Structure of Nucleotide pyrophosphohydrolase:
Amino acid sequence: MSEIPEIIQELIKFRDARDWEQFHNPKDLAVALNIEAGELLEVFLWKSPEQADPDKVREELADVLAYAFLIAEKYQLDIKEIMLEKIKKNNEKYPIDKAKGTAKKYTDL
Amino acid sequence: MSEIPEIIQELIKFRDARDWEQFHNPKDLAVALNIEAGELLEVFLWKSPEQADPDKVREELADVLAYAFLIAEKYQLDIKEIMLEKIKKNNEKYPIDKAKGTAKKYTDL
Amino acid sequence: MSEIPEIIQELIKFRDARDWEQFHNPKDLAVALNIEAGELLEVFLWKSPEQADPDKVREELADVLAYAFLIAEKYQLDIKEIMLEKIKKNNEKYPIDKAKGTAKKYTDL
Amino acid sequence: MSEIPEIIQELIKFRDARDWEQFHNPKDLAVALNIEAGELLEVFLWKSPEQADPDKVREELADVLAYAFLIAEKYQLDIKEIMLEKIKKNNEKYPIDKAKGTAKKYTDL
């Protein structure tokens, strides 16, 4: 089994051992993801990027990823496929000659 | 190459072709992740979980994952490793006999 | 003094007694606001709207409002003015005859 | 009528003219608040605090405040009262002699 399905299998095993699927509707999973994204952001609050504690980033990023993977599983989305597909779309949205060296949003290019 | 490093390699290729590493400090990556998590959440706003458009979930989830993977890369974190490690920790934080069937936070178990 | 300036004055007094203005640049205030918005959202996680604890809503909402008011102060924005102005704009963006009874975004009306 | 009730009255008038109370359960209002907080944060993305566009801050902050005020109304919370109460609590949580000049969280003081 490749990596991503293996991780998802472990997440599901953890969830099902606790009978938590009943709570994991996709809306609450998206809510949980936002809460965890906020906790990850808190590692950087009032700090320069360099001052953030890497061990805390590690902890909080794992939580963010867990909910992201569970949402993918809920919709039977293939994570590699949707990410490569998005990179392809962004290649068109942000053509290199226009986007190079600027942080502007595609709507402002 | 296994899946996750392959995806990260594509993200980096996209980033470097646009000379965007200069903007991608970890704090702004965490900011970007929160913005994308908000956009994913918007797919569910004023709706029951079933009413959300799966195609929009697909799009927004890919953006969330992209920034999560870029943060992992920035700190040289192995995504599979940190996720399995977190599941192990949560196994202790949420013992099956106490956590089964309840959505309570570990602090309230 | 009317209510809003009075609240802001108390927030500033609290901040300045701790010499915290040095940390309160507008970007970190917006980061802090997002973290607090996430904590407010957590009160509703895995729950129906009715199951949320009103005392926790009270606590977390106060934190959200504090950072929102501090951002207003930072840019010398008059909270009443910007809110009434926005309602006026939304009156045009969401004409009653098109928006009545539907939760659609203005871009989909 | 004082300022805050006056603003809330305008928000309710806008809402009721569109028959939107049916969508405004407190959980979705908290979801909406998070989405708007993310849009406010986007004004600062990839930028130093000084580079953010004040006109965009004004727009997005008004949206954040609107949902915060609507949540207060939903729970019949007096905004001034809960904010002053929170400042009082924070005065105890962050004693001046320990908190002065440091951005540490109260749990680390």
In short: Residues 1-77 of chain D form a domain with the Helix Hairpins fold (CATH 1.10.287.1080).
